[in-house]
From TrEMBL:
InterPro entries: HisE, PRib-ATP_PPHydrolase-like. It is found in: Cytoplasm. It holds the Pfam family PRA-PH. It comes from Butyricicoccus porcorum. The gene is hisE. Its EC number is 3.6.1.31. Belongs to the PRA-PH family. Its main location: cytoplasm. One of its GO terms (molecular function) is phosphoribosyl-ATP diphosphatase activity. It catalyses: 1-(5-phospho-beta-D-ribosyl)-ATP + H2O = 1-(5-phospho-beta-D-ribosyl)-5'-AMP + diphosphate + H(+). It is an enzyme of class 3 (hydrolase). It comes from the Bacteria. This is Phosphoribosyl-ATP pyrophosphatase.
Length: 108
């Protein structure tokens, strides 16, 4: 796990446990899951637009914003980075196992 992600997870948890005045993270927690999800949606859209526009520098920034908001959402939902990493490890073991997709015959 990246130290940057671990550090951010720690800071987010600290803001939740010990709110700080004028903290954006605390503001999100105060507003609740609906606000957090709205921001995740906004950042997702901005990330897609940056990728579509081919603006590498902007895309890196938008991905960072999206990851931050996802981590706030994870904290609010009680999901840890360790759990996500564990799931990623499980799925990595399935790489190369192309799922068989059901093909529908729309003519029948």
């Amino acid at each position: 796990m990246s130290k940057a992600f671990e550090s951010m997870e720690y800071v987010i948890q600290q803001r939740r446990e010990q709110p700080m005045e004028k903290s954006y993270t605390c503001y999100l927690f105060e507003k609740g899951m609906d606000k957090i999800l709205k921001k995740v949606g906004e950042e997702t859209a901005e990330t897609i637009i940056a990728a579509k526009n081919g603006d590498h520098e902007n895309l890196v920034g938008e991905i960072n914003d999206l990851l931050y908001h996802l981590m706030v959402m994870m904290n609010e939902a009680g999901v840890t980075l360790a759990e996500v990493e564990e799931e990623m490890d499980k799925r990595a073991g399935k790489i190369g196992n192309l799922k068989q997709f059901h093909v529908s015959d729309h003519n029948t």
